[in-house]
Amino acid sequence: MAKQKMTPSEALVETLVAEGVKNVFGIVGSAFMDALDLFPAAGIRFIPVAHEQAATHAADGMARVLGTPQACIAQNGPGAANFVSAMTAAYWAHSPVVALTPETGTMGIGTGGFQELDQMPMFEKSVVYQVRVNRAERMAELARRAFYMAKNLNGPTQLNIPRDYFYGELQDEIYTTPVIKRGAGSLDDLEAAAKMIKDAKFPVIVSGGGVSQRDALAEVVALAEYLTAPVVNSYLHNDTFPASHELACGPIGYCGSKAAMRTLAKADVVIALGTRLGPFGTLPQYDITYWPENAKLIQCDTNINILDVAKRADVYSCGDVKEFTDLLLKRVKELMPGLAKDNARLAEVEKEKKAWDEEKKEWGFAVKTEKMHPRLLHDEWTKALPKNSIVTTDIGNNSSMINGYLKFEGVRQHISALSWGNCGFAYGAAMGAKIAKPDAPVIAFQGDGAYGISGVAEVMTAVRENIPVIAIVACNYEWGAEKKNQIDYYDNRFVGANLRENPDYAKLAEDMGAKGIRVEHPDQVGDAMKEAIASGKPCVINAIVEGGEKVLAEPFRRDALKMPVRYLDKYKHLNAK
Ligand SMILES: Cc1ncc(C[n+]2csc(CCOP(=O)(O)OP(=O)(O)O)c2C)c(N)n1
Ligand SMILES: [Mg+2]
User: Given phi > 0 = left and psi -120 to 50 = alpha, else beta, which region is 270?
Assistant: First the structure.
């Protein structure tokens, strides 16, 4: 398209169209009504949510499933402020969300008139790029920039628009911004990595989120198979290697797979692909100190900011993980032609997996509980997942427990809150994922506490907008993850940890026009999943599970908590015994 006369609203909406944005979540507001009015004619569906946080999580979910930038929009001031937490989740997830944030008009800034807030500092640390439209004529240029930066820096961006700058006129052209190819990184690094692998006795691959984002599964599988190298998923990325593969060991990190951790511990060379090896994701778990400190480490990631953050590597490659892995295998094949399958290593992997599976199975029956043991729930619902399912996971004790159960065959199926760690992520993200992939069953998994933060209200959105996501609420009547800390560190003194008088979320869902199913026994879970999927309606499965000391997994932040010390007489009785 050559340069044309258009209004800033037209420029913004046409940029969305050029970038393939077909759905925008948000809440209607006067500040951007001039642009909103164009959405239907532009072929863009506007999806109103109950709270703007869910709009950003939805854009994030869409972006992670589709691999392209997605947008959310809100009223200036309070609407935009409601984006911030979810934008930060997208930031740490390297997810390209473009937040369109209208702002107080330029003639009102500084007067505290109505809904005024300086929206640049508010998002500054949560975006890879932000810009304020400082002249109406620059709308197309700066909107383009926001998309360019989101897709090429893999992260959220903010286009901040004083509300009067939707009006006016400009001359510009509209085009789809390019994706700049990175290549495999330095060939010297690649050579060093290949030589290190040649000398390895027990190489193990850590397959990270970058593998999912770059659709690099085939390359990682080929490398793993040629080397007979076991593969572990990085923390909260269970979709980065096909779980049914004989070399798949499952995820490392909190509540992950012991087979993965025990296998990684044996490595003499670790090949870390598309991962920052997040400090939290490599901590000892289940009392297994699995990170092989003496192993050589090769780390490839496209983002230079995350290399050398948590682990010191012997070879770094700042390259595209797909191209790096592909070229690395070619070079490895030249250095080690005709490498035979290592059956002994395969047998070792098999043995570890079997041992972990058996241990996990027994766990659910190890203690007698009044209500359903959460591990039996998790075993059943994850077994009932169709292969193409997408699961969004929240933060909490049950949301973590499921890391040991969730298995995927393909990428972009495990969408989690990751290191922002905010309760209230799953439902919004699930709505976005469902819009992105309407044919895939999409499950939002959360605890009862997290569901209250940003879940239950969004069931109204799902019903109004006919977005048939399935919520599983692990209803243990407590903020279990935090309660576990009060059990282990504060001698069972529960302050703010109980959630008494929860409504029946299944009934509540029915009242809101969704389908509601209450499950109280493991035998009901598989059927509930089938029924929910078949219904084609938004559905809430209220799973009543045991809580408390008997069943809660080990605390989330054992790394950061200390036993209490009190000096004042008034508080001395609260000292650790
Ligand atoms: C927005 C936000 N608020 C508070 C926390 C602290 N927090 C972490 S886990 C957790 C408990 C979650 O409870 P629930 O969702 O019921 O899941 P459960 O642990 O019981 O399985 C809380 C409050 C958080 N991570 N995010
Ligand atoms: Mg709970």
Answer: beta
Nearest ligand 1 atom to alpha carbon 421? 25
The percent of the chain in helix, strand and coil, each rounded to the nearest 5, is 40, 15, 40
Spacing, Cα 512 to ligand 2 middle (Å): 22
CA–centroid distance, residue 481 to ligand 1 (Å) = 6
Question: How far apart are the C-alpha atoms of 427 and 430, rounded to whole Å?
Answer: 5
51-55, 365-369, 547-551 — which is least confidently predicted? 365-369
- The neighbour count for residue 500, using CB atoms within 10 Å, is 6
Which residues contact ligand 1 via a Cβ below 6 A? 395-398, 421-424, 446-450, 453, 474, 476, 478-482
Distance (Å) from CA 253 to ligand 1 centroid: 18
Give the model confidence (pLDDT) of 76-107 as tens digits. Answer: 999 999 999 999 999 999 999 999 999 999 99
Beta strand ranges found along 66-224 (DSSP E): 70-73, 97-103, 129-132, 157-162, 170-172, 203-207
Q: Give the predicted TM-score (pTM) of the model.
A: 0.97
> Which residues are CB-neighbours of 385 under 8 A, at least 6 positions away?
391, 441, 443, 529
Which residue's alpha carbon is at the smallest distance from atom 4 of ligand 1? 423
Task: State pLDDT tens for residues 276-330.
Answer: 998 888 999 998 999 999 999 999 999 999 999 999 999 999 999 999 999 999 9
